[in-house]
Amino acid sequence: MLAGDVLSLAAEGTIDRRHVGNVAAVLRPRRQGGAVIGVERGFALEEADGTLTHLGELWTDTNVRMNEGGCDPDGRFYCGSMAYDERPGAGALYRLDPDSSVRVVLENVTISNGLEWSPDGSCAYYNYTPTQRIDVFDYEDSESGLTGRRPLAEIPAQTGGPDGLTVDEEGGVWVALYQGAAVQRYTPDGILDEVIGVAAKQVTACTFGGQDHNQLFIATTREGLEPGEDPLAGSLFPGSDGGAFRRWAANGPRYLHANQLACRRIRRGCRHLRSKLPSQVGEGTLHQPIAGMDKISKQGLFVSSYGRSSTGQTPHDS
C-alpha cells in the first residue's frame, strides 16, 4: 500500500508488480479490463492495456491518504481515507459513481477499513477500527444508499483491531485482525464462530480467490516493524482446508449495465475452517506464505486483491 505498488499473483504462481502512485490503497477490476484504484488522495483508472489515468485530487492535505474500500451492488466504488498520524476525524468515506462523479458518504472518519455487502445486497458490513466494531448498514437501493448504521459485533482490543473484511456465500463476515495474528468469521447475527490463526501479527486483509475461488488469501504487513521482528510479517498466506471451500453462490454474479466503470458482484463462499484461538495457535495456524510473496511488504506494502481473486463487488469487464 504505502509503496504505491499493485501485485498480481497468477494461477501458475508468477507475480507481477506495477507502480501506480504514492499509495495503492484498494482496487477492483473494471468490466472492460483494467481496474479502479484508490490512490493517495483520490481515484485512478487503469485501462485494459495498462494505461493509468489519475482523476482529480479530492483534497489537498498531504497528511491524509486513502485506506480501504469496496463496491456496492449498483457498481459504485467506495474508498475511505485516514490521516497518516491517525488523528481523529481527519478522513471520510467517498463514493465514485459510474459517471466519475464523487460523493462523500461519511464524514469525520478516523480509520476507514473493510467494506463489503451481504450476498443478497441488502446490507453492508464496515470495519471502523477506532471503535473496535464491525458495523452494519441497511442498503435498499442506489437512491437510499447506506442507512441505519448499527453495531454487528465488538472485538475486544486485546484480540486485535478490525481491518479488512470479506463476506462468504452464507453471509459470514471474515475479519482480518491487525495485531491479532488471526482472521475471524462472524455470522450475520454477529456471533463469532470461526478463527484462523496466522503466523504474523499484523493481518490486514482477506479475500477468496484461486481458480475455483476455493481459497482464502490473507495479507499481512511489516509496517512499523524492525528488521527481524515478526519475520513472516509482510507475507501473503493461503488458507485452505483441503478443498472444503465452496464456489460461487448458486445464483452467480449480478451485473449492472451502466458503463465501463460499473461493478459486478463476486461472491465467494467457503465451509468453515476450524482452528484454535490466537492464544492457542498451533495446529491450524497458517505458517507457510505463498512462495515468492514472503518479502513483498518490507516497505509497508499491502497486497490488494485483483482480478478473479477480488473480494466483494467489483468493476469488471462487460
Description of the structure:
The protein is mostly beta strands. It has a single domain (5-315), classed as Neuraminidase, CATH 2.120.10. 0% of the residues lie in helices and 42% in strands. The chain has no helices and 23 strands. It has strands at residues 5-9, 15-19, 24-29, 35-39, 42-46, 52-54, 64-71, 77-83, 91-96, 102-109, 112-117, 123-128, 133-139, 146-154, 161-167, 173-178, 182-186, 192-197, 203-209, 215-220, 236-239, 263-266, 312-315. The strands form 7 sheets. Strands 3-4-5-6 form a 4-stranded antiparallel β-sheet, with no helix packed on it. Strands 7-8-9-10 form a 4-stranded antiparallel β-sheet, with no helix packed on it. It is globular.
Any descriptors?
single chain; 318 residues; mainly beta; Neuraminidase; 4-stranded antiparallel β-sheet; 0% helix; globular
Low-confidence stretches: 241-283, 295-314
Identify the CATH class. Answer: Mainly Beta
End-to-end Cα distance: 28 Å
**DSSP, total strands:** 23
What structural class is derived from the secondary structure elements? Answer: mainly beta
Write the layout of secondary structure elements.
Elements: E1 5-9, E2 15-19, E3 24-29, E4 35-39, E5 42-46, E6 52-54, E7 64-71, E8 77-83, E9 91-96, E10 102-109, E11 112-117, E12 123-128, E13 133-139, E14 146-154, E15 161-167, E16 173-178, E17 182-186, E18 192-197, E19 203-209, E20 215-220, E21 236-239, E22 263-266, E23 312-315
Antiparallel strand pairs: 1-2, 3-4, 4-5, 5-6, 7-8, 8-9, 9-10, 11-12, 12-13, 13-14, 15-16, 16-17, 17-18, 19-20, 20-21, 22-23
